[in-house]
Amino acid sequence: MVVGVPKEIKNNESRVGMTPAGVFEMVKHNHTVYVQSGAGVGSGFFDKDYQKVGAQILDTMAEVYAKSDMIVKVKEPIREEYNLIKEGQIVFTYFHFASSETLTQAMIDSKAICIAYETVENEDGSLPLLTPMSEVAGRMAIQQGAKYLEKPVKGKGVLLGGVPGVSPGRVLVLGAGTVGVQAAKMAAGLGAHVTIMDVNMKKLRYVNDIMPNHVVTEFSNELNIRKHIKSHDLIIGGVLLKGAKAPNLITRDMLKEMHPGTVIVDVAVDQGGCVETTKPTTHEDPTYIIDDVVHYCVANMPGAVPYTSTVALTNVTLPYALKLANMGWRSACNLDKTLAKGLNIVEGEVVYKEIVEAFKWEPVLA
Question: Which residues participate in NAD(+) binding (predicted)?
């Protein structure tokens, strides 16, 4: 199969869909790999690194799309790429369709095979291709939140870890999944007081078992959330509904109950956000303020640490990319039910029901 790795063109996205090590494995299996010139530079991988392992370098994105049977990316295609995608072409990347009807319609129109990293799902419900980026984003959420609590950037002026004689900052984490656990771990490491909330008691018991005593768990409901937002300095939105739009756990009216300078980091922004006032931002302009509450809603947080993120991503995506290249998407998905869950749009039809539900469309599935 001919595999293409284009350069990411989303604002401040420096990751790349495949490392040279990944390309080496593809070439070893007799596949042709085209890499767009400069695609890996942001992650510390140069054209010569790809050429050494057998990749062919093409100058333009259009050439990569035109010559490839499968495109391996990081982020969803944006408007400039829509017309480059061919009918029947496999596009293997993060899509997060439920947050964008425009993207969804464009991919329907393209009649491509859209396989979304974020919905590839194991039998136990875990998401192997989303997990490493969730780990990065969860850890970064505390790093960024701590920075934006500083007064010069309109935060409360709170040091998360406190100092002797001064209470530490208070962090509220919504969701005890991968993002939430990693955020709680980082916040706890800084010495902050952490409250982590979820509706899944099994997850809360797990957190209670592994975290130190200054991380406390509480069942998530509106009354409890309203109680805690008044006293916490940093709020992390880490709620995930697989392939679906995130629920609004914090509504616009709740902002007025928060102390001025409170910081919200909504990691769920890719799926529409779990805060009603969330709107996607970029690393170039990451924050905005509503009702004196600082919102950090960067839609590609791991893109700020591209070397770590790219290596972590290729580690988990490569085995599936190899299956697709070796067997074709139909055979690969028939034999691997985990990979089959990644099918979102196939030749013009939405085959993932949560996308249909997100836009309240009429079901197309039998």
Answer: 134, 198, 203, 220, 239-240, 267-270, 298-301
